What does this fold into?
Amino acid sequence: SAVISQKPSRDICQRGTSLTIQCQVDSQVTMMFWYRQQPGQSLTLIATANQGSEATYESGFVIDKFPISRPNLTFSTLTVSNMSPEDSSIYLCSVERETILHEQYFGPGTRLTVT
Amino acid sequence: TQLLEQSPQFLSIQEGENLTVYCNSSSVFSSLQWYRQEPGEGPVLLVTVVTGGEVKKLKRLTFQFGDARKDSSLHITAAQTGDTGLYLCAGAREGYSTLTFGKGTMLLVSP
It folds into this structure.
């Protein structure tokens, strides 16, 4: 498994501002992912954070709105830019230790409320 | 259309009852995982199945992978209040580096 921490755990932000969420892993991992989740619902993949290159975004998500950094194999950030109330959600990072079984390990999540 | 259909969406039962959650697809998966998520936490991996027909047991939880690797089920025997949570199935397809998640099953076990 892997120990993953996220900061902040929750935040309340005003519309039009930006928030950067940090994800730290206790060991080097190849794959890191960012998801969005409404409480009680399933996960929606935002992007794959690639180390040393631009993130790979899923349909419906763009770099200008959700810029991602991955400076090394243990750390990544997701920024939610120019926020609106529709961005209120739980944001989760996850990692994959090996790429055969694709087992993912998740951080505790960041609960974002935009007012 | 949802690639992985998970059912039921909600399940409210009494302690001691049995239940089964289903995950179905028309696609073949090289591996399939089940996760459980409790409020305020991230999903936690319960099991991975990779072989068609495979059955894995984790205490009172039994996981099955369909022969054709297109479907899976999770059976809980004698549910306990600690089993309450959101159960998610997720599949990995050949040639894809990301997981496909089902919509989840919210399970509430009452004393």
Chain B has a mean pLDDT of 95. DSSP finds no helices and eleven strands in chain B.
